[in-house]
Amino acid sequence: MANDTTPSPASRRRTFAIISHPDAGKTTLTEKLLLFGGAIQLAGEVKAKQGRRQTSSDWMAIERQRGISVVTSVMTFEYGGCVFNLLDTPGHEDFSEDTYRTLTAVDSAIMVIDGAKGVEDRTRKLVEVCRLRDIPIITFVNKMDRESRDPFDLMDDVEKALAIDTTPMTWPIGQGREFAGTYDLVHNHIRRIDHDDDVIKVNGPEAAVFDELLPNGTDDWRESALLAKEGAKPFDLTSYREGHLTPVYFGSALRNFGVRDLIDALIAYAPAPRAQVADSRTVLADEPRMTGFVFKIQANMDPNHRDRIAFLRVCSGKLSRGMKARLVRTGKPMPLNAPQFFFAQDRQLAEEAYAGDIVGIPNHGTLRIGDTLTDGEDIVFKGVPSFAPEQLRRVKLKDAMKAKKLREALQQMGEEGVVQLFVPNDGSPAIVGVVGALQLDVLKERLAAEYTLPVDFDPCQFSVCRWISSDDERVLDAFIESHGSSMARDLDGAPVYMASSAFSLRYEEERAAGITFSAVKDYQ
Ligand code: G4P
Description:
Layout: E1 13-20, H1 26-36, H2 61-66, E2 74-79, E3 82-87, H3 96-103, E4 108-114, H4 121-132, E5 137-142, H5 151-162, E6 165-168, E7 170-173, E8 181-184, E9 189-192, E10 195-201, H6 209-213, H7 219-231, H8 237-241, E11 245-250, H9 259-268, E12 276-277, E13 282-283, E14 291-299, E15 308-316, E16 318-320, E17 324-327, E18 332-335, E19 340-342, E20 347-349, E21 352-354, E22 358-363, E23 372-374, E24 385-387, E25 391-397, H10 403-416, E26 420-424, E27 431-434, H11 437-451, E28 455-459, E29 464-469, H12 473-482, E30 487-489, E31 495-499, H13 502-511, E32 516-518, E33 520-522
Parallel strand pairs: 1-3, 1-4, 4-5, 5-11, 6-11
Antiparallel strand pairs: 2-3, 7-8, 8-9, 9-10, 12-13, 14-15, 14-23, 15-22, 16-21, 17-18, 17-23, 19-20, 24-33, 25-27, 25-28, 26-27, 26-30, 29-31, 29-32, 30-31
Bound molecules: guanosine-5',3'-tetraphosphate.
């Protein structure tokens, strides 16, 4: 039991994601963070690039072939008295929906920026999502061991491109081949590359040690370090926690340098599990009753365990193995007999889990994305979104005898969130919707590999769709009735209007009085 001097289990949790543009170094940083926690023995185990490395999330050939991380996975490790839950997000923008859902389950993020490139496109979009949810961000400027842009220039870029204040926490001592370490502006010490576990206290940028570290001259460097120390905005914890300010660290993930600073920053500054908004009230992390929501479903994660895992973010209370929770959507009891924690290469039964933890719950299709589990009152967590797809296709089956099997397989893929599935009201074959084309490749590959269903995709007469609703059920029914061949139902049975073009959608939106067309749907 927690008392005044023992921190509560929830307060020791740090649940975070790493966001970045592809190639900035997210995978490399993930590996190094896991090394700190002893979660993996050797660096280089997180992602296979061209088949050279192996990874837990790298379970699909398509990932290996393309060197991209398609699935979202979670890795738990302990360090410095804290339990870290690192949620991996797919780097490729075709899987953005998966990424957005994952960001609903974290309390903070690390943004990795390539020191030579600054803020790139995808980073900008991900930060927008973080901002919607006020997720605090720590910045890591990576690859300082290569020729990089001026640190002030980089911080300026972050401020302008992302409309967020910056505070340098460390300052790079040289860069490229001369990168010698970092000067910690807050604690007034330095760490040298290749000796990052050892700090040298200094009085300020004037210290003589900098002459040794920068043999080609220190005048410019001293000036910039002084400016960073005295001139930059001081770090403000509240401002960071509210998502208005990002502390900036410099380093090289590849050289395993600066990673220790990051992990210390997560411990010192990153928020413990936040309060979560549900339909009837806000749920605090230290409430006694267990609550949690499912943000991801994944099937066949591991060929040795042919199962389906729902990833549950615990929001409050304590989840114990064997407890009976309730699935609020159906009101039915849900025994949690084999909840699991995930590590880089492994999973393990979770005997107990607390707010902030992510547990995998094996099930046979009972759980869906957005589901709330609890042993307390009926509440439903909000904000796990589904986005209207940008491409719609019909699935063409090569073997017509397998139509029933295809229906079942598509239903599963839909429930997992691999694609969205729409069943047209006119009885024509199901339509799948995706945000990015790569999702179709994944669907095709998985149908072939897991269900022996070779398929192709046919274009479909529709290109956009919207969820529709109305305050007046009769108005809604009348609309559905009169638009029969353009109507479908999604997995939850919600009505969806499909249009051949954005133009015809707009036309319909303007004419349909009393009907709301939505491009985003909260699960439930
Ligand atoms: P991502 O997950 O964000 O896509 O990036 P990833 O970690 O895979 O890194 C992309 C490339 O950048 C990799 O090189 C990686 O070795 C390199 N890299 C990452 N961090 C650093 C760093 O701090 N310094 C330097 N110099 N390079 C870094 P690659 O050649 O594309 O892949 P690989 O063949 O090395 O795996």
